[in-house]
């Protein structure tokens, strides 16, 4: 009151100014109808996938001519055994009985349609079942359904059994140990492993050790057994001189002091990065033989769930390895003598940008050594990913496949009949990302397509190469799973996906489309999502859901019936669309699975992100569909997609009006060395500045929400915070959401999804 009496004119001026200032809390006048909220939640990825049945049929081979699979239905999961030599199928596991005995043993309520079991293994005699559930390992007698809890430590359960199933190799602290099944005893294989110089597991840079510690999980061993179960080839990993990163857990519990987690993490250009020293361990005498070659620097192939850089010949005396130089511009094929440790370099390939050993993300390198020593080798040297044949001395004999298409993955080599079975894409008309199965002779003759029909084919070959399972689908075609002979002849129908629950809620699949890239000639492929209550007389704002690669694509090609990365993105798009948006995914220049020229657009040019292609593609779509309103364009992405979303908002601020950037690697100088050095280049120079998002902070005009988990040990929260700091220094308004106790895999938590949805509703 004193203020008013002393300064009446000033008070009136402030009141008048407040009356004309725009209201910032936009949600007060833009509520979402309850129907749209409910439909959006119905399409949460976990929920949507749970309403699709008979779609994911994965074979588990128990003999060369027999496999079992689980078929999830609306009311029950059914388990079948197929005998391929007899052409028969029968039920093998009674889900009702298994649910009842597991419920009795655990005290948990269990539905036979959603059995909470993982890592199932049926014995070759079909009499017992082993699986993990509720953190324990179990054995079930398939005749009596007597259930036995296996009281093995988690580290042994997480270990890798020998081919003859008599032993399990596992990680115990910094060493490898061996568990003998018959005697139920465990003993060390190595004893000199120490923290930061250990055996049989990946380095902290690619392993996410903070998540392991907080979730009480055991790292999977990184090793390969010899065929005769006598030896192991693995690495001793040296990260002693690698620099450290730390995370502070501010909310370990109410009233508890914050916790500090420190771990090793190498970034591009670091003098010291993790080094992998190859060794062979003879399990019978506990001897460790170093393989005499330089330690393998950590590269992108370590950032997978597979042991793919080392393998054995059929005798168990020779190891083969793919040695990848730092920066990944040189690949070397090495052969090591398991007895003496001597190593021979067979061949190598170099290039001006990264050299790929496979175009399949996290796939086994497309390298196979024949019995006579000849080598099947993958290369993009002619501009497309193809197979080549070398002799045992590394001399090129001939190119096996060729043309404007790419080999994706070698599935098997049948030396008896002289055939290579592989998947490839781009050879058939239509979408160049669809997988097809082919067969070709090892001399390059008689190339045959074995899976006709325009669809994405997921293929599983039988161990004896007499038949294969073909699960074919498209984003708009529910999965059909069949058994075929090796010439492609249909032998048995196994399942057809049922999405009637989704259709009853008004859903229809996203629309496939093609547009032209910035060059005016290259076709790009994408999906367009509409809300279930779509009205073509309305104008809809647009959300571009993105991921720039470079190692993969964002657009779903197969039917989205599982919780794979692409499938989760698909249902996130449908979820957003239900709030009243047209949502689009597409893959621009610089992403994977096309020509080398297409891919190399992003090399040393990560900030490009294919964004010029997205803008020109959206304009082409708007010309076809006038109900798309390009005056209101939002963009969303996570991880590299979060980087892309922020780059879009800061590079093209007139086009993108609202952005949500989650867990973004906004400066690859702070990410793993294996990533930046491959895709931005090595050695590290000032060219890295082109991708630093914070340097563009002054360009922000629209609404930008930055999100991160405070326990992200993959993309460190510092990248988000440094971008936030740059925005503040530039005087820019932005929004920030930090999720407590969440690591990099935060993006399908309902609280995260609701936060992201709310931001678009309030601002777009």
- Poorly predicted spans: 1-29
Q: What fraction strand?
A: 25-35%
> How far apart, in Å, are the first and last alpha carbons?
41 Å
Q: What's the Cα radius of gyration?
A: 28 Å
Number of strand segments: 44
The side-by-side strand order for the widest beta sheet comes to 37-38-40-39-41-42-43-44
Number of helix segments? 16
What tags apply to this protein structure?
alpha+beta, eight-stranded mixed β-sheet, 764 residues, single chain
Give the helices and strands, then pairings.
Elements: H1 2-6, H2 8-20, H3 34-42, H4 45-50, E1 60-63, E2 66-72, E3 77-83, E4 88-93, H5 95-106, E5 118-122, E6 128-133, E7 136-141, E8 147-150, H6 154-157, E9 160-161, E10 167-172, E11 175-180, E12 185-188, E13 197-199, H7 204-207, H8 209-214, E14 223-225, E15 231-238, E16 244-249, E17 259-264, E18 275-282, E19 287-290, E20 296-297, E21 310-312, E22 318-324, E23 330-337, E24 343-350, E25 368-369, E26 375-379, E27 386-390, E28 396-399, E29 406-414, E30 419-425, E31 436-441, E32 448-449, E33 456-461, E34 467-474, E35 477-485, E36 490-496, H9 500-504, E37 511-516, E38 523-529, E39 540-545, H10 565-577, E40 582-586, H11 596-599, H12 611-624, E41 628-638, H13 640-651, E42 658-662, H14 673-679, E43 703-709, H15 718-729, E44 735-739, H16 750-763
Parallel strand pairs: 39-40, 39-41, 41-42, 42-43, 43-44
Antiparallel strand pairs: 1-2, 2-3, 3-4, 5-6, 6-7, 7-8, 9-10, 10-11, 11-12, 13-15, 14-15, 15-18, 16-17, 18-19, 18-20, 21-22, 22-23, 23-24, 25-26, 26-27, 27-28, 29-30, 30-31, 31-32, 33-34, 34-35, 35-36, 37-38, 38-40
